[in-house]
Every structure is written in C-alpha cells, then in structure tokens.
Design brief:
Distance between the termini: 31 Å
CATH superfamily: Electron Transport, Fmn-binding Protein, Chain A
Shape: elongated
Strand content: 25-35%
Helix content: 25-40%
Structural class: alpha+beta
Number of strands: 9
Largest sheet: 9 strands, antiparallel
Radius of gyration: 20 Å
CATH topology: Pnp Oxidase, Chain A
C-alpha cells in the first residue's frame, strides 16, 4: 500500500471505531450503506477490497465456503460468476440459498448477507464475460472446475487447444459459465469498537421494505 493509502486506511479505521454505527448513520437503506462501506474500502487502497466469502449448502445441509470476487451490486442483489458445473454451482442447483461475507479487518468492518440465489440472464453473463481479459476468457473454457485433474500439464494443454481454436476475434461465452445474483433477505453490518463494544446492525427484508434491529456484539 502507498503512503496515501495507508493514511486513508488509518483515517477510515479511526472514523469507524470512534464514531461507531448509529441508527442515523446506518440509515434505512442497507444497499446505500453497503455502497458507502465498499467505497471506503476501495478508497483506503485495500488489496482486493471486493473479495468475499461465499457459503453454499447441499440439499442435506452440508456447507462449503470459498473466497470469490464480488462483481457488482445494486438493489436487486449481489453478483458473482462461476462455472455452472463447479461444486458451488451444483450446491446452488440443489439448494438455491447462500451467504456472503465482506470482511475488511484493518477497517474493523464486516458485512454478512444471506438470501436466495438466481442465475443471471445469458445477456448479462455475456456482457461481463467479454469485459474480462482474453486469457481469463480462454481459461474459463479450459477449466472443468471442481473436476479431478491428472496434472497441471493437462490444464495447460487444454488452454493451448482452446487458444488455437479461438486465435483471434471474440471468444464465445461457454454454455457452462455465467453469473449469479444473491437476492438478500438479511444484511448485517458489524463495526469494531473499543473494549469489544462492537456495533451490529441488521436489516431484515419484510417484503414491504427493510426492518432494522440492533444486536448485542
């Protein structure tokens, strides 16, 4: 991190720990608050500020989690992308519910999001796919994500074959790859405070809007 980033990080951390998270500061819109905290993390220069933990579950209740990147959010939900034949995708087919955590430890902030998951439209997935670096597009075709791999050389060979198949021009969206949107039913914000008197503010989707409740830390 640069000197400027370090200064921004210290200032952001100081504001959060000193002022905390009052109901007035939190407001009535959890998406607006998420955007503010997400922007704070970005301005602070944190590495991979968009990193999230995504937790899914089988139909029998067996959980799994992995680190991913949040690729977009608005009032409709939170967007991420995956191979549709991966373990996470199979679990989401069985049980289309998930949880996301954004954690910025140096800022003493955490956001927990839970809700239902739906696939993006092909048009949405295609638009994002073509915004990725060409190597990432080819890599999506080459990887049978979560399937057994005999050796790293085999993956490299698959990549070379795909590269030869699409030497130039647009790389088409793989039929087994695309995006998901988590539509939140619950969003909780955690702000670290001195003496472990942390602030926890939770928003629950009532169907007609968001209801806020403060929790013990």
């Amino acid at each position: 991190m640069s000197l400027i980033s370090n200064i921004r990080t210290v200032l952001t951390m100081g504001r959060g720990m000193k002022k905390g998270l009052s109901e007035e500061m939190a407001g009535k819109d959890p998406f607006k608050l998420f955007g503010e905290w997400f922007s704070d993390a970005k301005r602070a220069g944190l590495f991979l500020h968009e990193a999230i933990t995504l937790a899914t579950c089988t139909k029998d209740g067996v959980p799994s989690a992995r680190m991913m990147l949040l690729k977009g959010f608005d009032e409709r939900g939170f967007v991420f992308y995956s191979n549709y034949e991966s373990r996470k995708a199979r679990e989401l087919d069985e049980n289309p519910k998930a949880a996301i955590i954004s954690h910025w430890p140096i800022l003493e902030r955490q956001i927990r999001i839970e809700g239902d998951v739906e696939k993006l439209t092909s048009e949405e997935s295609t638009a994002y796919f073509h915004s990725r670096p060409r190597g990432s597009q080819l890599g999506a075709w080459a990887s049978a994500q979560s399937s057994p791999l005999e050796s790293p050389e085999m993956l490299k060979q698959r990549f070379k074959e795909i590269e030869a198949k699409y030497p130039q021009g647009p790389v088409p969206l793989p039929p087994f790859w695309g995006g998901y949107r988590l539509k939140p039913q619950r969003i909780e914000f955690w702000q670290g405070r001195l003496n472990r008197l942390h602030d926890r503010v939770r928003y629950d989707n009532s169907g007609d809007g968001w209801e806020m409740v403060r929790l013990y830390p």
